[in-house]
Specification:
single chain; 298 residues; alpha+beta; 7 helices; globular
Length: 298
């Protein structure tokens, strides 16, 4: 019996594609490097990787300037934050605290779990074109993988003891998350007393700039002392993406969204990379080759 030449060809091509896909990431230098200035700064993020394309081509990007005419939402976010161990680390771009499970917000009838919070200097969002000294982002995720980020402006003023656990333990060097022994923090104490907010559809403010993020930007700032701000600035002198065009978006009111539920963009889920699609193609071709090889010509 004669084995199908065409089947062998498909099998070989499939194996080559699959092998190339799996080997090339190992040979690569690792995750794509990006910065906040220079040739790898925000202006060039979209060119650093196909996975970062939205940083250049997206039409619903963050941060933005919140105009004076923006609609304010009443304090209708239900915050259910519990204390957490201080799982703090320097990720190379900011200081981040990973939050223990069990803390949530509910807004518009939908619940999101608090995953982490981190900081930017100066603020990424601006209010009437004016930046604050810093900005804090509380990143939440729902059961269907949608993201909601609460933004809090941080301005210079009195020392804030609620922030002391973080600012007394800022890691100067990049490293992995590590719980500070005996230290806890409660995110609920880091919020402003007035919890009215602006709401709009936007994106992550760092690569890959994924869109479909619900932004809830507090209207009132929280104060930190000059010394607290300086402690962060000594590690990250500048780690803020410039404001992006608002385009044809509108500021949203949660009450109207609850009355007429909105379908969020699918990009709020897990993006599929070019490499993953290539793996799938290689596996499909390999399977086809094996099938054709099994059919022998008489």
């Amino acid at each position: 019996m004669k084995i199908s030449t065409f089947g062998n060809l498909v099998l070989v091509l499939g194996l080559v594609v699959g092998l190339f896909t799996f080997v090339s990431p190992v040979a690569a230098s690792g995750p794509v490097h990006w910065e906040y200035e220079g040739a790898e700064g925000p202006e060039f993020w979209g060119n650093l990787s196909p996975d970062f394309a939205l940083c250049a081509t997206g039409t619903a990007q963050s941060p933005i300037d919140v105009a004076e005419t923006a609609t304010e939402n009443p304090a209708d976010i239900s915050f259910n934050y519990q204390p957490t161990a201080l799982n703090i680390f320097n990720n190379g771009h900011t200081i981040q605290v990973n939050y223990d499970p069990g803390s949530t917000i509910t807004v518009g009838g939908k619940t999101y779990t608090l995953k982490q919070f981190h900081f930017h200097l100066p603020s990424e969002h601006t209010l009437a074109s004016q930046p604050a000294a810093m900005e804090m982002h509380f990143v939440h995720q729902s059961d269907d993988n949608q993201l909601a980020v609460v933004g809090v402006m941080l301005e210079s003023g009195s020392e804030n003891s609620a922030y002391a656990p973080v600012f007394n333990n800022l890691p100067a060097q990049e490293g992995d998350p590590e719980a500070v022994s005996g230290v806890t923090i409660n995110a609920g104490e880091l919020l402003p007393q007035d919890r009215t907010y602006y709401r709009y559809n936007g994106s992550l403010t760092t690569p890959p700039c994924t869109e479909g993020v619900q932004w809830l930007v507090m209207t009132r700032p929280v104060q930190l002392s000059e010394a607290q701000i300086a402690a962060f600035k000594a590690i990250f002198p500048q780690n803020a993406r410039p404001v992006q065009p608002f385009n044809d978006r509108e500021f949203l009111t949660t009450a109207s969204l609850a009355a007429t539920p909105e379908t969020l963009p699918s990009t709020g889920g897990i993006p599929v990379s070019t490499g993953a699609m290539t793996v799938g193609l290689g596996l499909l071709m390999t399977t086809a080759g094996l099938y054709l090889r099994s059919r022998r010509e008489v």
